[in-house]
């Protein structure tokens, strides 16, 4: 799954790979891309909820299931 967040003119992309291991990749316009691996869906879901909460608290809008620019 690919999700997008935006804040003004900046866009951030998050990719979730549900296979084993579960991987969350964050692609940001102003920092290096990073990936996190999880051994269970529960851990991935917990991290995703924490990340989306932190992004919205910092002024990001999303997640959107497709690029809102298109």
Content of β-strand = 35-45%
What does the overall shape look like?
globular
Look at the helices and sheets and give the structural class: alpha+beta
**Which sequence of SSEs, written as H and E, runs from N to C?**
EEEEHE
Strand order of the largest sheet: 4-3-2-1-5
First and last CA, distance: 17 Å
For the sheet with most strands, the description reads: 5 strands, antiparallel
**Unreliable residue runs:** none
What do you see in this structure?
With 70 residues, the protein is an alpha+beta fold. 24% of the residues lie in helices and 41% in strands. The chain has one helix at residues 41-57; strands at 2-7, 10-17, 22-27, 34-38, 61-64. The chain is globular.
Keywords:
70 residues; 1 helix; 5 strands; globular
SSE diagram, text form:
Elements: E1 2-7, E2 10-17, E3 22-27, E4 34-38, H1 41-57, E5 61-64
Antiparallel strand pairs: 1-2, 1-5, 2-3, 3-4
């Amino acid at each position: 799954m690919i999700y997008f967040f935006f804040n003004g003119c900046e866009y951030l992309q998050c990719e979730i790979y549900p296979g084993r291991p579960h991987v969350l990749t964050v692609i940001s316009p102003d920092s290096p891309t990073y990936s996190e691996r999880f051994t269970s869906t529960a851990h991935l879901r917990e991290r995703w909820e924490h990340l989306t909460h932190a992004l919205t608290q910092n002024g990001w809008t999303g997640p959107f299931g497709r690029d809102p620019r298109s």
